[in-house]
Design a protein that fits this description.
With 735 residues, the chain is an alpha+beta fold. The protein has two domains: 317 residues, Beta-galactosidase, Chain A, domain 5 (Distorted Sandwich), CATH 2.70.98; 274 residues, TIM Barrel (Alpha-Beta Barrel), CATH 3.20.20. Helices cover 19% and strands 32% of the residues. The chain is built from ten helices and 48 strands. β30, α5 and β31 form a beta-alpha-beta unit. α6 packs parallel to α7. The protein starts with a helix and ends with a strand. The relative contact order is 0.09.
Length: 735
């Protein structure tokens, strides 16, 4: 194996030398991309030239539709197919490594069979265009096909399959999933320096070093979270049969991934533009099945699910697949980056530019505010029914605001939870009906207006997804899974053990009613939750609805709500970012998978300077000093969940996991965070993060568009960078 790799490297070096000797030399004017610095080749690794844009050239091999994308100015390129075979892979893996399109088929109830362009007898009708090519692909044995279109763009390339081109003509084989260019930018073991960008939580990196076979799996995450319409309940680890001891994995909030070859000065950010609501992102290090690093999107056309055969849960079930495939165009845009931009900072800058230029991200007021949320009322069991547990009244909030003002904490954003009649879990909310135990409607309305007069933004919390069957009529308009069984969310709490989801059209109707009654009182600040961070398939009145249907419905609902209110959202998925005035509960960590080498604040880098980003609650972080530094590093604002009364009062409520919230315990921390982060963000203004560097001596360096540089030292001892000394577990600002 070694002599094959050495021979390949020597051949490449010889070709480079010969090309350099025969190539005319160009002097490229500064900032110009009109003149190619590298002469166009007729082919690269068996791929023939097809088309070019201002910066990139596209090459294609006709037998497997694999492509090469070349930077015209540097000569660096990436391939979509593996060009080096280590001799260890079977035909199935080789087919996946070299094919432009890889399909998993459903035959009966088996969804593990692969169809590709290498191992199967495939008909290809390829037409070249001025932007790339279009190829009609047909598997005669399986009797299905589709059209793959590839276009070169000014910033890279787009590959997509139109929905109306997908056809299944037989009755034995059906399409389960489709992967487009699953080995784009792949590398063998440690042949390349660089990493894979993983959309886990805020962001993570998998380095392209030799993993030595240590890992049995890589990252696989459903874009926009799991689908409760199909997913079976997980086996949960409980403490004393009561407390869930396993943290949920972070969701894929944005449909992106990337690969950087830092030694070659080339990278790409992939944006899943079409079909993302039914797609997973796969980021897999070498050693997992094969010795290649790869990242790609896998589109799901059909899912299998478990159908019980009777109402008796022990009677058995059938494993079946969707009879009708989902319908959407499927597309991935690869935004290529070169030289100094060929890293994850360049990817973040490129994604921000992509979002803003396409209207997916709008500029909001990004001035600093400390987030101080309040819990009004909860419920605990009583002899008959439940009784209120009052935690923070309107008068209490007045008192807390006054006390904070005496400490010079005046720049505040608040979300009031549990304000509604019957408390936090009296959901859904259909009107502006305020719990009398916190002071009633008139008092709350006055508080919101008075707070605004003091420059404080006070929003009412509304989870538009949940319904509590113990408090509300849940006979109709609740989500059933595709197997027609009602979806139930287990709370692991004693008062309300199960919560349900309401269907999207019901969410919209109830939000409309609430907004009308709320805004009629002259107030309009809404903090939306539930529908902002969940997508699902469901069955209603005998008809199946896909995640595409849910996404379309929620998009319309949120756009309408944003037009009528001052709207902020709790952990919104990327398709909703254009309509939010703030991002609440940004995760600052990842799911901490063992194969991830670094955690990076990728999403925060994208959003900083455009919309305010608030971290998850400080209260519940074990290492508060590290968490504070994470906020400094990511440009996030702090969040506190506050009650006037002791959190011990909540132990027998559904908020029993809120173990620390009393204002008197957090007053000093709020003041200290507000002072430090307020001063820091006054210097930053609405500047954007343009570069993030992990310097390797415990220091992370963050550079802003206004020239401010922040050095964060996560080590337990003093360290130095760029002539600046940073104390242990601290930060310094440079200009």
């Amino acid at each position: 194996m070694a002599h094959k790799r050495i021979g390949k490297i020597l051949s490449a070096l010889l070709a480079s030398v010969l090309l350099a000797l025969t190539m005319p030399h160009f002097t490229l004017p500064f900032g110009s991309s009109d003149i190619s610095a590298v002469k166009a080749a007729d082919e690269i690794d068996g791929h023939s030239f097809v088309a070019e844009s201002s910066r990139y050239r596209l090459y294609m091999r006709e037998d497997d539709l694999s492509i090469v994308v070349e930077d015209k100015e540097t000569g660096a390129y990436m391939e979509s197919a593996v060009s080096y075979d280590d001799g260890k892979s079977n035909n199935t893996w080789l087919g996946a490594m070299k094919s432009a399109v890889v399909i998993t088929m459903i035959n009966g109830n088996d969804d593990t069979q692969q169809a590709d362009l290498i191992n199967d007898n495939v008909s290809l009708k390829t037409t070249k265009t001025d932007k790339g090519f279009s190829s009609e692909i047909y598997w005669s044995k399986y009797r299905f096909g589709m059209t793959l279109k590839v276009e070169i763009t000014d910033d890279g390339v787009k590959a997509f399959i139109p929905d109306d081109s997908i056809h299944e003509d037989g009755d034995s084989y059906f399409i389960g999933t489709i992967a487009i260019y699953p080995y784009m930018g792949s590398s063998y073991l440690d042949d390349k320096e660089g990493y894979i960008l993983v959309p886990d939580g805020n962001g993570a990196l998998i380095y392209l070093d030799d993993k030595e076979g240590k890992f049995k799996s890589g990252f696989s995450g459903m874009i926009y979270g799991s689908d409760v319409g199909f997913d079976e309940s997980d086996v949960t680890t409980l403490l004393k049969e009561r407390y869930n001891t396993i943290s949920d994995a972070e969701k894929v909030i944005a449909p992106v991934f990337g690969i950087a070859h830092t030694d070659d000065g080339i990278a790409y950010l992939a944006v899943v533009e079409d079909g993302e609501a039914r797609a997973t992102i796969e980021c897999i290090p070498n050693g997992v099945s094969v010795d290649y690093n790869r990242a790609y999107a896998k589109f799901i056309l059909r899912k299998t699910y478990t159908q019980p055969t009777s109402n008796n849960s022990t009677a058995g079930s059938l494993h079946i697949y969707e009879s009708e495939r989902s319908h959407s165009d499927l597309g991935v845009r690869y935004i290529f980056l070169s030289e100094d931009d060929a890293d994850y900072s360049g990817m973040a800058n490129a994604y921000r530019e992509y979002l803003t230029s396409n209207g997916y991200l709008n500029k909001a007021d990004d001035s600093y505010k400390t987030r101080i949320d309040f819990l009004g009322t909860e419920r605990e069991k009583w002899v008959i029914g439940t009784t209120p547990v009052v935690m923070t009244t309107v008068d209490d909030i007045y008192e807390i605001y006054d006390d904070l003002a005496s400490e010079n904490v005046t720049d505040i954003l608040s979300v009031y939870k549990g304000w509604q009649k019957e408390g936090l879990y009296s959901v859904p909310i259909s009107s502006y009906s305020v719990d009398r135990n916190i002071g009633g409607k008139a008092k709350l309305t006055k508080l919101i207006n008075d707070a605004a007069g003091r420059g404080i933004d006070l929003y009412l919390y509304n989870d538009a997804l949940l319904i509590n069957p113990d408090e509300k009529n849940a006979t109709f308009n609740v989500v059933k899974k595709i197997n027609k069984r009602r979806f139930e969310m287990t709370t692991y709490m004693d008062v309300y053990k199960k919560l349900l989801y309401i269907i999207p059209s019901r969410s919209e109707a109830l939000l409309d009613r609430f907004v009308k009654s709320y805004t009629s009182k002259g107030v309009n600040k809404v903090a939306l939750a539930g529908i902002t961070g969940n997508l699902f398939s469901y069955n209603y009145s005998g008809k199946n609805y896909s995640r595409y249907d849910t996404q379309d419905s929620y998009s319309g609902t949120v756009a309408k709500l944003a037009g009528n209110t001052d709207l902020i959202m709790e952990q919104p998925f990327a398709y909703l970012w254009a309509d939010t005035g703030a991002f609440l509960d940004m995760p600052l960590y990842t799911s901490a998978y063992i194969f991830e080498d670094e955690s990076i604040p990728f999403l925060s880098m994208v959003l900083k300077g455009s919309i305010p980003v608030y971290a998850e609650y400080v209260n519940f972080e074990a290492n508060k000093q590290e968490f504070f530094l994470k906020m400094v590093e990511s440009g996030s604002f702090p969040s506190f969940y506050i009650t006037k009364e002791s959190s011990a009062e909540l132990i027998y409520t559904n908020s029993g996991d809120v173990y620390s919230s009393e204002y008197s315990s957090y007053k000093d921390t709020i003041r200290e965070y507000d002072e430090q982060l307020g001063d820091l963000n006054e210097m930053l203004g609405d500047a954007q993060i343009i570069e993030h560097e992990i310097l390797g001596n415990g220091i992370t360096k963050v550079t802003y568009s206004n020239g401010i540089r922040i050095y964060i030292n996560y080590s337990r001892e003093e360290a130095e960078a760029d002539g600046i000394t940073v104390d242990a577990m601290s930060y310094e600002v440079g200009r």
